[in-house]
Amino acid sequence: MKKKKIGVYICHCGGNISDYVDVEKVRQAVEGEDIVFLAKTTMFACSDANQREMVNDIEANGLTSVVVASCSPKLHLLTFRNVTQRANLNKYTYVHANIREQASWAHSDNKIGATEKAIHLVKAAIAKANYAEALETNKVKALKSVAVIGAGVAGMKAAISLSNKECEVVLIEKEPFVGGRVSQWDSLSTTTETGKEIVNRLYNDLITRENITICTNSEVISNKGSVGNFTLKIKKTPRYISTSFHPEDLKKAIEVCPVEVPDEFNFRLTPRKAIYKNYPGEYPQTPVIDLKNCTRCGACEKVCPAVNFSEEEDIIEISVGSVLMATGFDPYTPAYGEFGYATSENVITLPQFKRLIDEQSDTLVYKGKAIQNIAYIYCVGSRQAKGDNTYCSRNCCTSTIHAALTAKNKFPDINNFHFNRGLRTYGKQEILYADSLRSGDIYLQSYEDGLPTVTIEGKKTIVKINDILTNGKEIEVEADLVVLVTGMVPRADNKVGTLFKLPKGRDKFYNEIHMKLRPVETVIDGVTIAGACQGPKNIAESVNSALSAATKSYSIISKGELESEPLVATIDPDRCTWCGACEAACPFDAIMKSEKEGKIIAAINNAVCKGCGMCAPVCEPDAINVTACSSTEIMSMIDALV
Amino acid sequence: MGEINRMSAKILVFSTEKISDPAIDMAGLMKLHYPPTVYTISIPCSSGIKPSWILHAFEKGFDGVFIAADGSDCVYGETCTEKTGALVGKTHELMKSNNIDPARLRMAAICSVCSEPFVKQIRSFNEYLLKTLHA
Amino acid sequence: MKDSLKSSSYDALVIGAGIAGGEAALNLANTGYKVLLVDKELSVGGKMIMLSKVFPTLDCAACITTPKVSEISRHPNITIFTGSEVSNIRKISDNEFVAKVTRKPRYVHVEDCTACQLCEKACPTSVRDQYQFGLIGRKAAFIPFSICSPKAAAIDIDNCTLCGACERVCPTHCIDFTMETETNELHVKTIVVATGFNLFDPNNIPRYGYGKYKNVITAMQMEREIAPTRPFHTILRPGDGKVPDKIAYVLCVGSRDATVGNPICSQICCMYSIKQAQLLMGALPMADVTIYYINIRSFGKGFEEFYQQAKGMGVNFVKGKIGRISEKENGNLILRYEDINKGKLQEAEHDMVILSTGVLPTKGIDGLFENETLTLDQFSFVGQSDMLASPAKTSIGGVFVAGAATGPMDIPDSILSAGAASSEAISYIIQHA
Ligand SMILES: Cc1cc2nc3c(=O)[nH]c(=O)nc-3n(C[C@H](O)[C@H](O)[C@H](O)COP(=O)(O)OP(=O)(O)OC[C@H]3O[C@@H](n4cnc5c(N)ncnc54)[C@H](O)[C@@H]3O)c2cc1C
Ligand SMILES: Cc1cc2nc3c(=O)[nH]c(=O)nc-3n(C[C@H](O)[C@H](O)[C@H](O)COP(=O)(O)OP(=O)(O)OC[C@H]3O[C@@H](n4cnc5c(N)ncnc54)[C@H](O)[C@@H]3O)c2cc1C
Ligand code: SF4
Ligand code: SF4
Ligand code: SF4
Ligand code: SF4
What we know:
heterotrimer, A: alpha/beta, FAD/NAD(P)-binding domain, C: FAD/NAD(P)-binding domain, Alpha-Beta Plaits, seven-stranded mixed sheet, five-stranded parallel sheet, 21% helix, globular, binds flavin-adenine dinucleotide, binds iron/sulfur cluster
């Protein structure tokens, strides 16, 4: 092995590191090492000026390897690999040391300890750099197609955007109809268009496109492969109604169906039949038979020839280059008895209230009773001081004020009482709050330690609060209807997230890699996230994230080729005795029996191997090492760390 | 301050690039302090750790080795848990036959947001090691 | 001075090189399109490059912007014009716009400048430093700020006395007083407007005493005081250089206030104030920090937790409206406010007051379009013609909008909005090829 000439750069990070780690001391501690050619400190290693200096240093001195000690490699490993590449040095000769998150910040209580740790970490990186070799990346073919999972606004917009970029799209929706939550809303804030109209507009655009395949009533049931080429199996549940139906016959079929189940579309306020459609203009236009609840009585079949129980479940397989996840959210379901939910019949949730006011005209009636006083209790299931949901659901303040105003315009007799925890009508939505105050709505506020209470006294439902806006005075309102402002929670059914192994954040929504640097990417290469499945968002925010994710998915595959990391397992043919243990351990079927110079040994398929290393510890004769993570490298790092 | 350093055990942490590294980084970001003699080596997956590495660390003078395992979040598949468990079992055997207290190797599943559990685990491990090795 | 006219063509013109414009330019460039990125300032990076750390993750703004900035400035598909303004745009057809861009002379040849700062030392003229928001001074020959890009000196010709001192000391002879304004005629297929926002000028609320009382500063000035690239080495109050220990934040300054013509909420100031309070508690462990607020708007991912964290650290939150601020002889400030919880008027003394000023639109962008109308919304932000279903679309086909140019927005939202604008721009180019 030729002797290495290593350049080491130790970053101040403008004080983030140097306030706790004595960077000059670190520099001095490593500069004397035999293979270290130069060691420098820098204010910002990632700055343009320092990057230029690194390029100059590498070229002028013929450095063979570079170590930067700075922040987490999550932020800048790629930045510095690119620097070495610009200086014509193979990027795999670069080694990173994390002395910010794992030294200066973690040990900001102990400057000496932090400095000593930093010295060891840099020495370990140098030890690793001593063995770092030039590697060539593998080229993988990338299919120019994307699977978009979920056809809410986010998924539909992402599909349109990808189609515009001449990408093949498969849009997969679990429900029989498209549109997600937005199809459940009529009036929306900041626009005169209804939710249904927006969904219809998007759907009409979608179906004109030849490069989009829409699969409704469909679910992804398996996933194989990786970025560039994912193979997905999709289970399509039939509608049991042929598309060439006669509307009158179908209307009759729905009438005669004897089964009634709670209608999820109306948040269980009303029942629906086993053969159904959520609303008249809904897309796709063919209704559906919900076989789980259907008793196969055959009543519908008798009045409508389009009903066809012989349709069968279909499993199709598709291959795509990238996957865009847009599975949205669930409204929070209050616990039994939470603010009278399920224990008082006058208590409903905000989504139910929205359905209620959209369905009714003239007077507002609930359970046969005319409604006058409405109490809205905010932040139910969000900003919990005790529960798991510590986050704010972002939209519910605005949605509630908007719903309350809509109700008041429609039913002028009602009185709105808002039991809130500090209004969050951020940005231009503030105008709505001002409108609401002007219309005479009453606002009462508390903090997390003095939440309002709901008590049931006979037929009366009383909401009480110690209102901080009036000096903590106890105020009570006898409400005809209590609306619980339920926030957004992740979809209860997370099978698809598990399938793709998507990580979740503190709030249990899917998590991005980095909110500012890589906001729509996940740690799973090739899988992007969009819309409310990443966290609460309104429609415009969901669409922004959907278009960002579409651009990201597109840019991953648009060149038709991807570079994959050359970090794979290697077999030492002298040691290998072909026992087959590695073959059994590999989760990707990357190992096969093969023959080399007359000897039967294991062979690695580099295109399939992911470099996880699961095969290495099971190998009795220790014949397997993973590139850049070999026993030599790890042990030399251990030596440097002690 | 030197006092503080002698108060902490030398622990080698094997952590995984995609799952537990972010948690350990976040522990730093949140300034959840733990002993500065805890060093992390990043690897792709906890099921790829060779028992020989762990033995090497003890031989060279580490007081303890902690595996921040992927658990069920592993990006390489659900067999990770079982395989990591197997290699830990094997290493425990090897440690026993080398007269090393098997409790000096610990494993816990650390997911990408487990910063606090990580720090708790490390602190309690540190206490155990100090008590048994440096008392 | 004579104008020289240069003509060239690009796929996209991005106006404004803040985080939104930068992100949009990168997305376009990474997809293979040629982009011209124009900013009126001497450096790219917009407001974000001046910030300290950024909520809610508290990563250092410089650590996030500098690599982006360096990626932008190195990208083979991106051309950057700093110190430049678009003066006129004409739409010729669905896939052609002609834009006139004026490049003001910098009087320094950027390629040759090594940023050695000798000119700064030699220059005898001192003026207020706009990049440090007036906290300190700078010379007429100056490097805008330490992490600016391009990293090169510039001559502020309005204040320069033409003494020639800088020219004489410059080792690379890159100072050139004969440079002239250059007008470029550009042909582009699509345009992204990312001109960001202006900050409310607190001089418009005289009862807060900004400009009169030295220890009343704006949050942007405080950002500079706590940034890693800060002008002083510690946090001090401008009046007497004392380290403050009783600090107050006044929220909603120039926002949610119809009397100053801005009824909307600026949506970032609650969070940036909480962030600064946390950073101050870290930097000055003995200091008391109080935030006077109307409502705390911690609505985004991780924001509410960030707010709770600040409370846990001991930041005081007082629900109250500040009536007026007056100054004591020792430079301390008396805040008169209505304490909403107690329901009465109160007074409190602080030794430094930070005004969390709101977000206003940048003016004039609609005036650039010659034969088309760029519609603004009722608050003079760039109007969104299909706000819910296509938030990046404007009233002009082929012109898209990103970031705070559409209304108040934090960094994560600006980046997503830039992603949407670039996505629409890419689709537009492909569809109108
Ligand atoms: C009460 C209320 C009122 C609101 N009012 C407004 C308003 O006035 N203005 C506004 O801008 N926003 C409003 N919103 C917010 C708006 O509903 C969301 O921004 C929007 O629905 C988010 O869209 P999405 O596509 O991300 O998710 P969703 O609408 O939830 O769509 C996700 C889609 O994915 C599908 N899906 C889920 N899992 C799978 C799977 N495994 N496989 C396939 N498909 C799957 C779902 O069936 C669904 O169709 C309101 C929200 C609530 C709760
Ligand atoms: C004190 C303060 C603290 C903040 N802290 C945070 C934080 O911690 N976290 C967070 O998420 N957000 C924070 N923000 C918000 C953040 O600054 C904005 O979200 C972000 O800067 C918006 O980016 P932008 O690119 O849209 O606009 P800008 O940053 O305003 O950039 C616009 C660019 O366009 C240029 N420009 C304008 N007009 C023209 C023209 N006619 N021709 C050419 N160029 C033009 C400008 O020079 C500027 O470079 C903070 C804001 C302030 C004021
Ligand atoms: S948006 Fe409003 S109602 Fe919803 S959780 Fe946040 S503060 Fe509560
Ligand atoms: S490293 Fe992982 S993917 Fe590669 S051969 Fe070994 S077990 Fe299989
Ligand atoms: S202009 Fe000349 S003197 Fe000034 S910084 Fe640049 S190289 Fe140095
Ligand atoms: S974000 Fe907070 S400080 Fe800013 S205007 Fe809105 S409520 Fe006021």
